């Protein structure tokens, strides 16, 4: 079975690239482009209406809210508490990173810092860990 | 009588009628003077100023006590108490002079000996000449002044004038708080001299009575309070303005009432003139203080504005970083995939070469942004250096190897004349970036000859020189550089190349600064090459 990745990202060109790259790498992906949509999805997962993804890639700057709110929402409930969530962003700020770590982020990745190959390798490595 | 009036007869002081309120006032001011002196010393930020102020306050306190006992003699006779009062007066004036010297940041050392000699001389004159020539006349004492006592007044005049001159100069030349401080002390000093003269010379001479003398300690208390305020609270300007106005007002009132108390017609006129002069002086004084206050408010407003702008700038830079990186992700990603052949192999070698070039440029753009962000965060204190043992020679050789292709392309030599160096604790990545930028600039700004890197150790500091035979720097340009104005480049650079050494240099400067080192440039002028020096403190742990 193909691993499921939920991408929360709003930048169109980036979404297009990720869709292409991750599909070809063998992942099943879904993209949500608003923080609100991500919150609703978390609710559906709690209620058992939706399946849990194997990994969430979370952009920190979203049009309607910042990614930390989504992370907090996920960590609040037992059903989604253990979701594997990676921050995948271009916004690196030590204060932000500190807060993310405090809220229990699994990894912080700076998009432009890695080549696509490296990014996929990191994700595959992460998916192996349970 | 005729025999006595050889010198000038001088009524120094007389005992005043005791009254309960006046006595309480006197005791009250004695206590308060001492408490103010002590609290300034304990709470003040400048120990030396505080100490001299405390000594002054103690002398004033003792002086008030002796004046009190002169009026109601206990243990000693009124005559003995008067000797003490007079001696303390003169010592108090000299201590006030010390206080002025110390608060003006002048070394007291060279004044010590003259002050001690003057004090001893003055007290001796008081005891030997003044007091021995005292005669009683009712409740007053009369002094006959002999020619040698001129020395006494001369000394008083010299120290008074010298102190006032120092304060006056400082109030003209200093800026900001220091200037205000000097101004206030000058005013206080002036008021002190005026009130002393009026109380001890003017009124006794004209009225022949000492009935007003209970005012002395009150005036002294006001003076101590005023100075304490200037020392401790000089940053609270508004309160000082209010106090200043109050003080000018009180002095004005006293000068206004004075003519009515004086019987002599001529002196009535004289005091009225003094009052009018005081009004004019007071007007300008208050006007100046008000203007200063407005300027200060304006300066504070500007500082607030500047802080707000700085915060906004920091926030802007951080969000700019996000927005600039966002399109870079797909650009780098697609280039990577094209070059990998994901969309089919590109057979045309020229197109392939250009794509590789584009990928390299996108990476450069990315690392430049990273560098700027890094500097920004180092400056804001959000990041710190990660120090590790580093062999600087190897680091430089690595940089040379990396830069060699570019130098070769321009036909330039690239030399490293290093000496064996110890392991040094450095942030490798950032120091590498700092040196690399300087080498890259040197190559960029040199068309003939080449670049030489030299390392040496001097005064426990590591020095790295990057010398080129390039366009050189004008003196003006070096000055700009030393002043941190990096983005104003010399004329010749504009002709040769587009965007200049500004950004790369600013990264180098900040990284070296973060290590506690410095960068400077040397050049003989146009066309004569440039040498950039990096100096780093050696930390061996």
Automatic annotation (TrEMBL), chain A:
Q: Which organism is it from?
A: Candidatus Nealsonbacteria bacterium CG_4_8_14_3_um_filter_37_36
Residue ranges the record marks as coiled coil: none
| Response regulatory domain mapped to chain residues | 4-126
Q: Where is the signal peptide?
A: none
Record-given protein name: Response regulatory domain-containing protein
Q: Which residues carry this modification: 4-aspartylphosphate?
A: 59
Q: What is a biological process (GO) this protein takes part in?
A: phosphorelay signal transduction system
UniProt entry keywords in alphabetical sequence? Phosphoprotein
> Pfam families from the entry?
Response_reg
The record's section on InterPro entries has: Bact_response_regulator, CheY-like_superfamily, Sig_transdc_resp-reg_receiver
TrEMBL record, chain B:
**What is the designated name of this protein?**
histidine kinase
SMART domains membership: HATPase_c, HisKA
Please name the GO terms that the record assigns under molecular function. Answer: histidine phosphotransfer kinase activity; phosphorelay sensor kinase activity
Q: What is its EC number?
A: 2.7.13.3
Task: Mark the transmembrane ranges.
Answer: 24-42, 49-69, 81-103, 115-135, 141-168, 180-202, 214-236, 243-262, 268-286
User: What SUPFAM superfamilies does the entry give?
Assistant: ATPase domain of HSP90 chaperone/DNA topoisomerase II/histidine kinase, Homodimeric domain of signal transducing histidine kinase
User: Which ranges carry the Histidine kinase domain?
Assistant: 319-540
- What GO cellular component is one of the record's annotations? plasma membrane
- Specify the superkingdom: Bacteria
Q: Which InterPro entries match?
A: HATPase_C_sf (IPR036890), HATPase_dom (IPR003594), His_kinase_dom (IPR005467), HisK_dim/P_dom (IPR003661), HisK_dim/P_sf (IPR036097), Sig_transdc_His_kin-like_C (IPR004358)
Keywords from the named record: Kinase, Membrane, Phosphoprotein, Transferase, Transmembrane, Transmembrane helix
Q: Which reaction equations make up its catalytic activity? A: ATP + protein L-histidine = ADP + protein N-phospho-L-histidine
The record's section on Pfam families has:
HATPase_c, HisKA
